[in-house]
Design goal:
Blueprint: H1 2-23, H2 26-30, E1 31-38, E2 46-51, E3 56-62, E4 67-73, E5 79-88, E6 91-101, E7 113-118, E8 122-126, E9 132-137, H3 144-148
Parallel strand pairs: 1-7
Antiparallel strand pairs: 1-4, 2-3, 2-5, 5-6, 7-8, 8-9
């Protein structure tokens, strides 16, 4: 009886342990960490207030290079909306955006982190290879690359 138990469950147990070793616990245990970081520039404070359909996720004031983190279950659908504001040389910049809208884009759940960065031109997301793409442009702001040209 003991040997049949070992043979019957040994394969799935080995597979589970290999998946945990390769991908970490998040895809299997069901948690992903979503970060929103202030990368606008030194001495600029970003004020955000976020919510999803069911909960107010709170207001946060982020200094340069500070971030807020949400821990999400991969077994639920998420749409997280944030309103944000910051001062750009005495001019108030404000807007609202989906920091995560899984109908449009999901976090790369094979990994356990999902990063968003507020920059001077907008809010950027990073794919699993670390390649950035803009998900929101601040009103009246040009892309950083356009400013440098």
């Amino acid at each position: 009886m003991v040997s049949s138990f070992n043979h019957k469950y040994l394969g799935p147990l080995k597979l589970f342990l290999v998946l945990v070793a390769l991908f970490g616990c998040s895809p299997i245990c069901g948690k992903t960490h979503l970060f929103l970081r202030n990368e606008i520039r030194n001495n600029v404070t970003l004020s955000i207030s976020c919510q999803n359909r069911d909960h107010d996720l709170g207001a946060h004031i982020l200094g340069y290079k500070q971030e807020v983190e949400w821990i999400l279950s991969i077994f639920k659908f998420y749409r997280i909306w944030c309103s944000a504001s910051w001062m750009d040389n005495g001019v108030l910049i404000q807007g609202g955006f989906h920091v995560l809208d899984e109908k449009v884009e999901s976090c790369p759940y094979m990994y356990d982190i999902c990063i968003r960065a507020a920059k001077s031109d907008g809010v950027w997301a990073y794919n699993e290879d670390g390649v950035p793409h803009m998900i929101y442009r601040w009103p009246g702001k040009a892309l950083e690359e356009e400013i440098k040209v």
